[in-house]
Design brief:
The chain is α+β, with helices and mostly antiparallel strands. A two-stranded parallel sheet has the order 1-2.
């Protein structure tokens, strides 16, 4: 615990993903007071044309009340 999934458009390099994963892990360890072995990070690339149906609707619009950081856009 926890497992964090980052959904994003394709095009970011492995180095960028590794850098972001490292920062997320450090913050999770700090805030939740857990070890690195407890944290896992995954990346899911979603094409821009599929974003509304695969991400925005199920993960944002339908879970608006569970978001701690809301996007500055609507679809």
């Amino acid at each position: 615990m926890p497992h964090v999934i980052v959904k994003l458009w394709p095009g970011k390099s492995r180095q960028q993903k590794a850098r972001l994963a490292g920062r997320i892990v450090k913050d999770v360890m700090d805030v939740f007071e857990c070890g690195e072995e407890s944290v896992s990070i995954g990346f899911e690339e979603i094409k821009s044309k599929d974003w509304k149906e695969k991400v925005y609707k199920p993960d944002i619009q339908d879970k608006w009340d569970k978001l701690y950081q809301r996007p500055g856009y609507e679809m």
